[in-house]
User: Which sequence fits this backbone?
């Protein structure tokens, strides 16, 4: 098969990593994979570094033009984001190729948008959701998504990279708690900061490192850190390339999201035996079920503080939940298996088209 991946995001987050994982898995299975992406973005750069053909364009008209002109040269067009599936179905009358969409969000469709979103989704030939939570809205609108969960792969840690971070942030001799999330409303950084503040009232043996780009809650988050006197405890590390290396020094990984389709960063923690404390938002409840971590209600900063303390102090609990989490992630979130599940859907579509 010749497969075109679509992802036009500006930055590098979980969806972009999953796009690259899909491309690797499809290529490893013997298929030709190309990418339509934002020119100059990190996804174009990383795909190029790995030898993929990446068609970088600068705007929506250029995306539409490429799909209209070149789309028929592919067997499958796989949209990895909500925006790109729009352009894929709008040009379908010109490229006549099956469109696959991976829904990676759990947002509720606004009532006044249901007709438009539903019409778009119904033109997709294979609708994939990465979790039961991500599947809820399309099901409500009468669709039947296939569940193919996001993946994570074993990572060889760059120790020099880690040591540079430890030295830069002064992490020596401290327990390290961390999150990886943009400073935006959906990730609820204010609840996280308050939880860290509560934990800091009872102990001084840790630092909390917040990895992630800025956003609409950055100013409030920094103000809250100052208001609680956490400047030496709560460290804003910004976006970092190769963050997977840093899990090797984490004692606890924390997520405070209000909305989350899956929360793929917790999978890295699972893979590296790091205990996770998380809100029960969306797909996070699925990931941490059956004792694979500590689940708290969204917005409950006191429960999050208690969960972090338990992960730091209760060795037996920590060992049990990290083993459960590791066994789960290796079974349910394997990159090769994810690729196999997608390819089975692609082959089904092509067989139906040929028939």
Assistant:
């Amino acid at each position: 098969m010749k497969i075109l991946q679509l992802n036009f995001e500006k930055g590098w987050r979980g969806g972009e990593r999953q796009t690259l994982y899909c491309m690797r898995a499809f290529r490893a299975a013997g298929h030709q994979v190309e990418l339509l992406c934002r020119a100059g973005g990190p996804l174009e750069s990383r795909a190029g570094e790995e030898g993929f053909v990446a068609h970088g364009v600068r705007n929506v008209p250029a995306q539409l033009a490429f799909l209209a002109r070149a789309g028929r040269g592919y067997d499958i067009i796989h949209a990895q984001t909500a925006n790109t599936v729009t352009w894929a179905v709008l040009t379908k009358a010109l490229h006549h190729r099956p469109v696959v969409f991976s829904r990676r969000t759990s947002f509720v469709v606004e009532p006044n948008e249901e007709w438009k979103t539903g019409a778009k989704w119904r033109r997709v030939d294979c609708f994939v959701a990465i979790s039961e939570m991500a599947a809820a809205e399309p099901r409500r609108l009468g669709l039947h998504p296939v569940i193919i969960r996001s993946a994570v792969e074993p990572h060889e840690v760059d120790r020099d990279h880690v040591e540079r971070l430890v030295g830069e942030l002064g992490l020596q001799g401290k327990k390290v708690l961390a999150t990886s999330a943009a400073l935006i409303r959906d990730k609820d950084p204010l609840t996280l900061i308050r939880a860290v503040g509560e934990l800091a009232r009872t102990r001084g043996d840790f630092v909390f490192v917040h990895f992630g780009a800025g956003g609409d809650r950055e100013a409030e988050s920094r103000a809250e850190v100052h208001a609680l006197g956490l400047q030496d405890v709560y460290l804003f590390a910004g976006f970092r390339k190769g963050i997977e290396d840093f899990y090797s020094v984490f004692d606890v990984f924390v997520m405070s999201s209000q909305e989350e389709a899956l929360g793929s960063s917790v999978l890295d923690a699972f893979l590296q035996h790091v205990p996770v404390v998380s809100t029960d938002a969306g797909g996070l409840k699925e990931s941490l079920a059956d004792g694979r971590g500590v689940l708290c209600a969204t917005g409950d900063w006191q429960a999050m503080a208690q969960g972090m303390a338990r992960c730091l102090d209760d060795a037996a609990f920590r060992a049990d939940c990290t083993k459960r989490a590791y066994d789960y992630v290796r079974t349910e979130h394997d990159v090769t298996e994810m690729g196999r599940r997608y390819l089975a859907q692609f082959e089904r579509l092509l067989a139906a088209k040929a028939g």
